[in-house]
Amino acid sequence: MHRLRITRQFIRRAFGVAVAAVIANVIVLGLARAAFPAPAAFSPYFYSSVIELTAAGVVAAAAVYVVMGLIFRKRDRNKDFVWVSFVALVLSFVPDILLPFSSDADNQGATWPIVGVLMLLHVIPAVMVIWGFTSGVKDVSSHG
Question: CB-based burial of residue 59 (10 Å sphere; 0-12 exposed, 13-18 middle, 19+ buried)?
Fold first, then answer.
């Protein structure tokens, strides 16, 4: 039986990636809100929504990276993680692309430029996660 050990270095790295991704997304959102205004009730453009979803996404990615360390012990986890991240990123675009067609009152006002901004808010943390988790940090090991 294998036990999982997550190093402090990986926890610090994941926390740092989360903070950096939130800061980057807040800056981009601020610029985007000035360039592409949306109705006040457009919830995907709320700072709170972006902060919460960005942090949650990074935590979820860290969990996936850890689990992949257990499942793919004999494979190149970093290479596999890049592919999994890319697929997750592309799938994360689907709700954004569907926003202009939504009848939900909180989503009224989604224009294609706003959809592009929301998609960019997925790309930024994805790039940070991929680089942050695969750049040589001793992160996770399993022991039998």
Answer: middle
Q: How many whole angstroms separate alpha carbon 10 and alpha carbon 118?
A: 28
Contact assessment for residue 44 and residue 107, using Cβ atoms and an 8 Å cutoff: yes
pLDDT 10s digit of each residue in the chain, 144 long? 455 667 888 899 999 999 999 999 999 999 999 999 999 989 999 999 999 999 999 999 999 998 888 887 777 888 999 999 999 999 999 999 999 998 887 788 899 999 999 999 999 999 999 999 998 665 555 444
In a domain, 70, yes or no: yes
In whole angstroms, give the CA distance from residue 137 to residue 134.
Answer: 7
- The verdict on residue 89 lying in a domain is yes
Q: How many domains does the chain contain in total?
A: 1
- The pTM assigned to this predicted structure is 0.88
The domain in which residue 53 lies consists of 3-134
